[in-house]
Amino acid sequence: MKESGYDYQIVRGFTFSALFWLIVGLIVGLWIAFEMFNPALNLTPWLSFGRLRVVHTNGLGLGFGLAGIFATTYYILQKLTRTPLAFPGLAKVHLYLFNIIIALAALSLFAGMNTTKEYAELEWPLDIAVVVMWVVFAVNVFATLAKRQEKQMYVSLWYIIAMTVTIAILYIVNNLEVPVNWFKSYSLYAGVNDANVQWWYGHNIVGFIFTVPILAMFYYFLPVSSGLPLFSHRLSIISFWSLIFAYLWTGAHHLMLTPLPEWIQTVAIAFSIFLIAPSWGSVVNGYYTLRGNWEQMRSNYLVKFFIVGITFYGLQTIQGPVQGLRTLNAFFHYTDWVIGHVHMGTMGWVTMTISAAFYYMIPKITGTGLYSIRIANVHFWLILVGQLIWTITMWIAGIQQGAMWKATDADGSLTYSFLDSIASLYPYYKIRFAAGIVYFMGIILFAWNIFMTIRTPQKAYEQKKEGM
Asked: Which residues are listed as membrane-spanning (predicted)?
């Protein structure tokens, strides 16, 4: 199958969408990080922390994350099946519908229309639109798989299938609701059942956006960018089925020490600890793929994105299950430690992997080389340093926060008020904001590099290369 037979316009469209929503989401994130130590920035209800925070999470998680996933999925799907998209016109509908939904979601959340359910804040008309969009995507995925010319199902395709099926089930079940009017609805569930379903969804929607499809990218792009075969296809398949089996049972670890039945909490803890094994199966697979070729961490600018990214994935998949243990959960839950944990995954593992995937993919589909490897290297170090300062600062803040909340005097009364703990965190919030600026600078370089790669004609690139 010739490269020209594939539909790369849709890949390019979702790439631009991902970069746009990434920059918008980070600007909102910087604003609310500034608000944390300068509350005067809550100028209007539209710019209040409560509204901006959900715009930030949805804009990056769904706007950037899903757009990056769709871009790479459409690329990987065609390459691994050796088959063009079954319905290229439907893929364009998907692209337009996706961006309309994200724009309307941001607008509605800015306006305060919010179900108050974590990662499921959109009101019911947009929920229906999301389901329609996902069906459009799923039709193309499964139709292309059905027509595939390559019969061997590489592990990345299994991860794509798992994402496509599981997110549909999660989203529909958790977002069942009773509309009151066009702008307000109430969950079909109530009380502890509502909490249990919500965190079954909340944990797993993150997993099947920020873990499963990102692993699909990792397993495809690391071997092709390094020129090395995957260490073990068998290990990748064992890791896949173990991860898929265990992940869906872990959501209740967000509800430790609550009225949720204790046996459900215990099941969630057990499966959370078990998850370390399949997660590290992928980490080890990545490390061993490079065995004997570790010099590529210096010579191949893409490899360091993937290997450092999978390292953060491995660290996060130890930190997350351990946080689910009751004793540690009682200390860390609701503190900024959790914020650091989440952002190590999103700023490290997810963004690094998507960045490297774009750096490999875009030059291939444009027929040019990357506009600037030097800029890519600067981008890598800026987001690495920014992310490390950001997350470590939040871990330290979280430890201090938890300790202050639990400190008591000899008579049993609390040593510190809640306001005391907030005031003590201001220095950490300032450092976090500064780290966010460093990270944002790296992302601007990333977006510029991709934009210029697409914009530079092949002839101009060849002339530039000859002149070097």
From this structure: 12-34, 54-77, 89-112, 124-146, 153-173, 199-222, 234-257, 263-289, 301-318, 338-360, 380-399, 431-451
